[in-house]
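FOLDING PROBLEM:
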Amino acid sequence: MNQTADYDFTIIVPVYNEEDNAAALEQRLSAFLPQCSRRACILFVDDGSRDRSRELIAGICSRHPDMFYISFASNCGLSAAIKAGFDAARSPLVGYIDADLQTAPEDFNLLLPHAVDHELVMGIRAARKDSAFKRLQSKIANGFRRMMTGDDALDTGCPLKVLHTDVARRVPMFTGMHRFLPALVGLQNGRVKQVPVRHFPRVAGTSKFSLSNRLVGPMMDCFAFRWMRPRWYNYRIGSTNLD
């Protein structure tokens, strides 16, 4: 039995070579779960880490009954890890947060109340603690994406989001998918809410993003979205005898 079905909210934590953050993750997430406004569990998705992350995550889950993990056989990328978590979760709501803890798990409590009326609730990083060059790259990429997709999301790179699981599982899989969640939810006629959240500097490990995958790649992906948008199917089942 998939144990995430026993919870209201599954928090996906994609992990790739984050052994230096494992202890902080265990401490912060285990402290947050009793404070979460919904009955929540953690689902780590190890993206084929080459360090000790997988071993450390397995140890964390053995100590905490509300924490689970899946591991890729090889590295597939952040979007694949997020989508695998969406597909594995069986709770009504699903969310995700990065393993670098540059956003606070406690801020899920700012997002969750809005999930009653919105299919996607996303954070906006207030007072970002990244370098000026990183912020400039994100500003350019977000502006170009808004022009190409027509969504009004201010900060799609913010790694703090809450979605209805049935909507999340219908999101198509492609590299860079996580940056297009507002537009992809919009294709399903879903409602999107943006909420300011806190942001902190990375204190351990190294960033997995560079100029190519923060700016150039997302711009190219916009053309893929523009190709897909008129070809997207929205269908509703009228009747069935499957039940």
User: Anything to note?
Assistant: DSSP finds eight helices and seven strands in the chain. Residues 109 and 217 are 32 Å apart (CA to CA).
